[in-house]
Design brief:
D-Maltodextrin-Binding Protein, domain 2; about 40% helix; 2 domains; alpha/beta; about 270 residues; two-stranded parallel sheet
Length: about 270
């Protein structure tokens, strides 16, 4: 009898082990990735029975994963699209958005570049390929090396909407898959320009003002910086269990929101 009970217990653990272990999967935006990593690390220290796996891949891939049921939480640096909502409904999914932070997308150049400000119109012309040399902007007579995000990126889609005004980025642009990759590419090329979230700013790149407005926490919150946006985490339907606990932790002013600030982004409060 004891042997039967032991076998049944082991079978139950194998079937429901994920629930007992408190495993969470988070996928999506590389912009939100530093926030997810910091919060997850702190959360697991306080909840040692919970294991959290995190991966990037872009906002579009995160939302696709939440629709397909292959992630518990989807990080996204943009809101869900109408066509994604339609697909979700067709698959019986119901993505719920949680605003977790604010961000601004800041143009960056190599630290040796003398340029300090660009208008949104100039940025558009650069990325459309109309302005091709730095000399057209008062700089050196050298070609501008455009660095952009891939089209599955929420950062790209916000850039396309707020800077490009729905015009496509020139195919001449070097396309990279993450904020970190863009930062590294610009840091290594004196004639490059890219754009990254505020949390990815570092001493190896130089931030550029847009319309004479600096990309700062204050200017993000008051809405004056022209390329600002909220950041999201999506769940499938209203979260329960460990997913709900984690989302509440992210949103708590004395917990997750402090870590949002530590990650270099703008907290909600």
């Amino acid at each position: 009898m004891k042997k039967i009970v032991l076998i049944l217990t082991l079978a139950l653990i194998l079937i429901t082990g994920t629930a007992f272990a408190g495993n969470l999967v988070i996928k999506g935006s590389t912009t939100v990735l530093p926030i997810a990593q910091k919060v997850s690390e702190a959360y697991m220290k306080q909840h040692p029975d919970t294991k959290i796996s995190i991966s990037g891949g872009g906002s579009g891939n995160g939302i696709k994963a939440i629709i397909d049921g292959t992630t518990d939480i989807a990080d996204s640096s943009r809101f869900i699209k109408d066509k994604e909502i339609k697909l979700a409904m067709e698959k019986g999914s119901y993505p719920i958005p949680f605003r977790v932070a604010y961000d601004c997308i800041i143009p960056v150049v190599h630290p040796s570049n003398k340029l300090n400000n660009l208008t949104t119109s100039q940025l558009k012309d650069i990325y459309m390929g109309k302005i091709r040399k730095w000399s057209e902007l008062g700089g050196l007579d050298k070609p501008i090396v455009m660095v952009s995000r891939d089209t599955s990126s929420g950062t790209y889609e916000v850039w396309e909407k707020k800077v490009m005004k729905k015009q496509r980025v020139s195919p001449r642009a070097l396309t990279l898959a993450s904020n970190g990759a863009i930062s590294q590419a610009v840091a290594k090329n004196k004639y490059a320009i890219g754009y990254i979230g505020i949390g990815y700013l570092n001493k190896n790149v130089k931030p550029i003002k847009v319309n004479n407005i600096e990309g700062t926490v204050a200017n993000t919150l008051n809405g004056t910086f022209p390329i600002s946006r909220p950041l999201f985490m999506f769940t499938n339907r209203w979260p329960e269990g460990d997913t709900l606990k984690f989302i509440n932790y992210v949103l708590a002013p004395d917990k997750g929101q402090k870590l949002v600030k530590d990650a270099g982004f703008v907290p909600l409060y």
